[in-house]
């Protein structure tokens, strides 16, 4: 009975079906079919050799990854940098979106918005060269100059030589580069907030801060939660470009992450199998986190993904 | 809002002042890299390698631009970049919005499954070689459509649009349905117009991604110059300028220059030039789209 | 590391000294026969055809060879045009999908991807084709023929640069560079040892703590990314050994051993540590990028550094342009102990695991081999390297080639190099190197008549002060090492030796800067910790591999 009614419903919804099923088919072809490639993770893959002649090695590639003596350190760095980026990225973007929303001049607001997203278009190679220059101990090192002028430090610090500063430098660099870009989505969400709510708050005697807390932030809640869930799934993706470009031997204990490891021992060595194995590992973790976060959101009565 | 402006308290003014100061600081910090790139790109390359160029070129020259733009292929590649960006954006935004609409309909029985099928794809990919072989089977190699078809929908955009559609008061959609509109008509006539801000946002995301892509050109279309994009052509120029310093061929510098190397360009100067050339057109998109962010939905009148 | 090795191949090839000068001995009679056999088909052979050529070794502008002056001339001779594509992104990625998809061009220069190509059987064996169509190739590569065959006896790739005769290079290979002003200040002393070198730097820095308003930098290192080898390579050099990568080979026993934990490595790092404690070392250079390094060298504030001529080209150019010769550099092959013979120059070598191959997809391999054979004819080699007489070079009454100032200026223009074809043909094709039979150099920048024109007044002065003709005269001639260099041997993907190199790299990148910056009294203990970590790596597997390379090469086998 239930089944029939389900089918019956489906028949009624043929427009919705027509609007979505072709894309699901597209999805199967372009996203799901290539997943056969995961078999490479269990081979010592040699391109140009037929799938039947490949050497199957079981979990050897995974073992190589997990049994590396630096694996623990690599995972720690990956998680630490991801979390820092996640928290900093979220907080700064939301704060900037709110502050931009509080600007009264539309022209000024748009100008700042546009300028603030410019660094997103600069490659990490260029960005890192600017960062390294700014952190230099030479006369071009503006960070040291300012800190010394302010009397915070006595002599220039070689920022990039100390592992303990690395995560901080990376976090700030990421914010600098992507703040404006990350803000766009919250600015979009703010436009959905009904102006009547602000007026109502005003009438109730709410001050600026209260309006932000009780109108703007709740209006952003669903976007924030959804992005949070999505990004938690990406926690193992801390990127490799900035780490690769800003890191060096002295900071390697803090800068080496999973993606860099894969780059060095997988891609640069032409070892597709190891790169695939790492990808499979990341996917498994991502999907666990995704379902976990979604479940928690559901339990908390928050908007959820699916 | 105007009413608010008149009754500004002292703390409000202090807040505004601090806010403006902060925004100016932010603008300065984020504008700097661009001005710096501009200065480097307009400076003699060898001189720039001495360092110390910040906001103004020291030895002014157009040479970096001449060097980069002298290739006829650049202009054709701009056309391809423009085409893939516009076609790719329109198609992707429309398709993503359509899927988003279906998964936003609470009554749709496949809703959860369709959504999940899309969301999962954010966290895996089959890898380089299987994808390459698939495209080969589908005759997408050396084909313009390899820029468009594999990217028609991104799960992220679907989710974003969906959350926006879910914010539309159900009453609006219900009343359309009562007036006899089917799902497709409702989507086209009611939902799409109401979604303008998020569609503008997603357009920006897709357009930037399309414009900046070069890896698909590298993998799938590299041997057909007619399908090359601006980013890829610039990448070629950059790498061959870098090549002359690092992967030095005996020939390039050593055998035919009579010793004294002749580099009027350096990787750093080309990179700066290329940053300016490649990003200016796409940066222009944002200010243009901004008006859609502000207008937004005027939902004030519609109450559930 | 990969890129550095590539550059090395190129540079060492370019510096090849040739052992046997008799390669042309039996060529006279032979050359007529094959050309006769080719005659009947000559008409048909000229039908225009376009092949595809993929170069994974270097970035460049994609083009058709017949769009260049040189390529057009070759097309007129053979009817063959090549559509050339150059690698833009990652080599392994591109070759991987090309091979997996079977989408191979006709001709590939796979660079370090050679393993992948051979593994996938993507290259055809060339033996029969060479026998049938390639008398000129056989003549040119004659002395090296035995080294070109793979284990199965087939020749799959034709290496570049079959060398004939030695010509010193304009660029110095590895050297400890020092500012000419420092030498002038102290009356152009002869410096042989590292200690003397640092003493001079120290004295000069004490006397002139500032240069042009900035702090004088005693010694600069280069550690950015893959350029890290610039920090580690001097160690064996200082001990009178050439740079073979991770190992050195005993001349008597022919045993290879890793360099990473040896005393000479320690001694070198300890010297840097000492320099640091005396304030002579630029600490920032341990974290700086290459761009900053060049900027510092260009500033004229740096007194000394170890590097290779090709890595400092922009800085030298800047200094030349600034016009103060005292701020420019000259390099010396320093050693630890007086009397040690320096071995900075690469011994004669023929790199067999880089080259050009014809793929299984090639439509007409015979035409391709004929094209290759045609291009290595002596007159065509002169064409490809020197261009056309009267246009890009001149010949004096003694038959010596030279270039006028205008010709040199014209050729320095990258656009001209491209449109003329020099940038496409000067490497990555079958070719010779060294000296032509008439004594002219293959590469114009090895021709004294050309090189001299490019020396500045300052160059001439310093050369005179040290009684040198060219800068490379500072080096001792290299001893013969038939296995040299070990690093150029292929490493199987995923092999222990490949893994060792990456792990070792990670380890040294982590430890060496720390050792250099350590308090001098902590140095020994720290070195002990490093060596302990180093020995956790699979050193034995690596040495075994290196020894097998040495043995195979001594036995004349391709490795």
TrEMBL record, chain A:
Q: Which residues form a coiled coil?
A: none
State the UniProt keywords alphabetically.
Membrane, Transmembrane, Transmembrane helix, Transport
Extract the signal peptide range: none
ABC transmembrane type-1 domain location: 75-293
One Gene Ontology biological process: transmembrane transport
TM region positions: 16-33, 79-103, 212-236, 265-291
Places the protein is found: Cell membrane; Membrane
Topology in the lipid bilayer:
Multi-pass membrane protein
Q: Which Pfam families match?
A: BPD_transp_1
Query: What are the record's GO terms for cellular component?
Result: plasma membrane
InterPro entries attached to this UniProt entry: MetI-like, MetI-like_sf
Kindly give the PANTHER family that the UniProt entry links to this protein.
POLYGALACTURONAN_RHAMNOGALACTURONAN TRANSPORT SYSTEM PERMEASE PROTEIN YTEP, PROTEIN LPLB
Q: Which family does it belong to?
A: Belongs to the binding-protein-dependent transport system permease family.
| Name the UniProt record assigns to this protein | Sugar ABC transporter permease
Q: Which organism is it from?
A: Paenibacillus radicis
UniProtKB/TrEMBL annotation, chain B:
* Membrane topology, from the record: Multi-pass membrane protein
Fetch the PROSITE patterns from UniProt. Answer: ABC_TM1
- GO biological process annotation, one example: transmembrane transport
**Which parts of the sequence belong to the ABC transmembrane type-1 domain?**
78-286
Keywords, A to Z, come to: Cell membrane, Membrane, Transmembrane, Transmembrane helix, Transport
CDD domains reported in the protein's UniProt record: TM_PBP2 (cd06261)
Q: What is this protein called?
A: Sugar ABC transporter permease
Biological source species: Paenibacillus radicis
Q: What is the lineage of its organism?
A: Bacteria, Bacillati, Bacillota, Bacilli, Bacillales
TrEMBL record, chain C:
Q: Per its UniProt entry, which superkingdom is the organism in?
A: Bacteria
Signal peptide limits: 1-25
Q: Which InterPro entries match?
A: Bact_solute-bd_prot1 (IPR050490)
Instruction: Provide the alphabetized UniProt keywords.
Output: Signal
Q: Which SUPFAM superfamilies match?
A: Periplasmic binding protein-like II
Name-wise, this protein is: ABC transporter substrate-binding protein
Name the source organism. Answer: Paenibacillus radicis
Source organism phylogeny: Bacteria, Bacillati, Bacillota, Bacilli, Bacillales
């Amino acid at each position: 009975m239930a089944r029939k009614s389900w089918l019956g419903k489906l028949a009624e919804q043929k427009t919705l079906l027509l609007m979505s099923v072709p894309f699901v088919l597209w999805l199967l072809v372009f996203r799901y079919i290539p997943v056969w490639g995961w078999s490479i993770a269990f081979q010592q893959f040699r391109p140009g050799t037929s799938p039947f002649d490949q050497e199957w090695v079981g979990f050897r590639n995974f073992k190589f990854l997990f049994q590396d003596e630096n694996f623990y350190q690599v995972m720690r760095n990956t998680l630490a940098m991801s979390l820092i980026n996640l928290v900093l990225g979220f907080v700064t973007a939301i704060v900037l979106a709110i502050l931009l929303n509080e600007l009264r001049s539309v022209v000024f607001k748009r100008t700042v918005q546009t300028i603030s997203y410019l660094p997103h278009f600069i490659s990490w190679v260029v960005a890192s060269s600017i960062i390294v220059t700014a952190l230099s101990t030479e006369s071009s090192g503006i960070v040291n100059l300012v800190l010394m002028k302010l009397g915070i430090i006595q002599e220039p610090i070689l920022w990039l030589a100390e592992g303990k500063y690395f995560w901080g430098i990376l976090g700030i660099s990421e914010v600098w580069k992507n703040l404006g870009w990350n803000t766009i989505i919250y600015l979009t969400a703010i436009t959905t907030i009904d102006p009547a709510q602000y007026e109502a708050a005003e009438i109730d005697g709410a001050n600026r801060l209260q309006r932000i807390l009780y109108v703007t932030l709740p209006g952003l809640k669903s976007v924030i939660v959804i992005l949070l869930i999505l990004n938690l799934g990406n926690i193992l993706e801390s990127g490799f470009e900035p780490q690769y470009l800003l890191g060096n031997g002295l900071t390697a204990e803090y800068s080496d992450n999973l993606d860099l490891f894969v780059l060095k021992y997988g891609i640069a060595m032409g070892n597709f199998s190891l790169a695939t194995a790492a990808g499979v590992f990341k996917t498994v973790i991502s999907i666990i986190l995704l379902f976990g976060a979604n479940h928690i959101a559901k339990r908390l009565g928050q908007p959820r993904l699916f | 809002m105007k009413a608010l402006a008149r009754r500004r308290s002292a703390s409000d003014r202090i807040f505004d002042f601090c806010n403006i100061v902060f925004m100016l600081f932010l603008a300065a910090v984020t504008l700097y890299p661009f001005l710096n790139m501009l200065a480097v790109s307009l400076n003699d390359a060898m001189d720039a390698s001495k360092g110390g160029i910040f906001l103004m070129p020291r030895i002014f020259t157009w040479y970096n631009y001449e060097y980069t733009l002298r290739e006829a292929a650049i202009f054709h590649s701009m056309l391809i970049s423009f085409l893939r960006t516009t076609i790719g954006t329109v198609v992707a935004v429309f398709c993503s919005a359509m899927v988003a609409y279906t998964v936003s309909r609470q009554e749709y029985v496949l809703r959860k499954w369709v959504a999940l099928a899309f969301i999962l794809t954010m966290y895996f990919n089959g890898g380089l070689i299987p994808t390459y072989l698939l495209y080969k089977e589908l005759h997408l190699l050396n084909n313009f459509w390899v820029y468009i078809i594999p990217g028609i929908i991104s799960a992220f955009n679907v989710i974003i649009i969906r959350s926006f559609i879910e914010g539309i008061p159900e009453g609006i959609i219900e009343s359309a349905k009562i007036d006899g509109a089917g799902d497709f008509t409702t989507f086209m006539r009611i939902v799409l117009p109401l979604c303008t801000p998020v569609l503008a946002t997603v357009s920006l995301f897709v357009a930037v991604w399309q414009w900046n892509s070069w890896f698909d050109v590298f993998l799938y279309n590299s041997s057909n110059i007619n399908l090359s994009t601006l980013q890829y052509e610039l990448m070629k120029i950059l790498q061959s300028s870098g090549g002359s310093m690092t992967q030095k061929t005996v020939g390039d510098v050593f055998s035919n220059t009579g010793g004294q190397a002749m580099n009027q360009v350096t990787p750093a100067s080309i990179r700066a030039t290329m940053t300016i050339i490649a990003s200016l057109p796409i940066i222009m998109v944002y200010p243009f789209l901004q008006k859609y962010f502000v207008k937004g939905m005027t939902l004030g009148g519609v109450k559930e | 590391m990969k890129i550095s090795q590539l550059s090395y191949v190129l540079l060492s090839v370019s510096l090849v000294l040739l052992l046997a000068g008799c390669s042309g001995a039996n060529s006279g009679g032979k050359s007529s026969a094959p050309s006769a056999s080719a005659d009947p088909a000559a008409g048909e052979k000229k039908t225009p055809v376009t092949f595809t050529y993929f170069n994974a070794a270097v970035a460049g502008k994609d083009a058709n060879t017949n769009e260049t002056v040189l390529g057009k001339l070759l097309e007129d001779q053979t009817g063959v045009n090549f559509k050339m594509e150059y690698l833009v992104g990652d080599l392994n990625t591109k070759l991987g999908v090309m091979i997996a998809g079977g989408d191979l061009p006709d001709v590939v220069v796979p660079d370090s991807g050679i393993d992948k190509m051979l593994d996938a059987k993507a290259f055809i064996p060339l033996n029969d084709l060479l026998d049938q169509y390639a008398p000129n190739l056989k003549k040119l590569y004659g002395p090296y023929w035995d080294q070109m065959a793979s284990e199965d006896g087939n020749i799959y790739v034709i290496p570049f640069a079959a060398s004939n005769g030695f010509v010193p290079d304009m660029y110095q290979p590895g050297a400890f560079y020092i500012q000419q002003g420092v030498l002038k200040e102290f009356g152009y002393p002869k410096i042989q040892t590292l200690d003397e070198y640092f003493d001079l730097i120290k004295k000069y820095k004490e006397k002139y703590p500032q240069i042009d308003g900035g702090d004088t930098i005693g010694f600069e290192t280069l550690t950015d990314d893959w350029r890290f080898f610039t920090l580690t390579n001097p160690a064996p050099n200082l001990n009178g050994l050439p740079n073979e990568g991770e190992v050195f080979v005993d001349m008597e026993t022919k045993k290879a051993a890793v360099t990473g934990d040896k005393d000479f490595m320690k001694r070198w790092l300890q010297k840097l540590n000492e320099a640091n404690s005396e304030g002579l070392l630029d600490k920032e250079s341990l974290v700086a990028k290459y761009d900053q390094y060049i900027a510092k060298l260009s500033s004229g504030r740096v007194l000394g550094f170890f590097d290779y001529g090709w890595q400092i080209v922009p800085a030298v150019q800047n200094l030349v342009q600034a016009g103060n010769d005292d701020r420019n550099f000259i390099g010396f092959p320093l050693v630890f102990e007086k009397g040690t013979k320096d071995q900075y120059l690469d011994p004669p070598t023929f790199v067999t695991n880089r080259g050009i191959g014809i793929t299984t997809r090639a439509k007409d391999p015979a035409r391709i081999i004929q094209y290759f054979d045609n291009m290595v004819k002596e007159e065509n080699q002169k064409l490809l390297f020197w261009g056309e007489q009267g246009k890009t070079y001149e010949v004096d009454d003694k038959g010596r080639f030279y270039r006028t100032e205008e010709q040199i200026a014209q050729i320095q223009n990258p656009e001209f190099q491209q449109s003329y074809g020099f940038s496409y043909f000067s490497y990555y094709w079958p070719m010779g190197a060294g000296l032509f039979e008439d004594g002219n150099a293959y590469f114009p920048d090895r021709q004294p008549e050309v090189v001299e024109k490019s020396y500045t007044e300052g160059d001439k002065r310093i050369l005179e002060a040290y009684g040198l003709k060219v800068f490379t005269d500072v080096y001792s001639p290299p001893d013969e090492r038939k296995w040299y260099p070990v690093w150029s041997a292929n490493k199987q993907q995923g092999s222990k030796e490949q893994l060792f190199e990456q792990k070792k790299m990670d380890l040294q990148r982590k430890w060496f800067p720390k050792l250099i910056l350590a308090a001098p009294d902590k140095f020994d203990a720290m070195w002990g910790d490093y060596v302990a970590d180093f020995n956790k790596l699979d050193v034995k597997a690596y040495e075994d591999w290196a020894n097998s390379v040495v043995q195979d090469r001594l036995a004349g086998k391709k490795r």
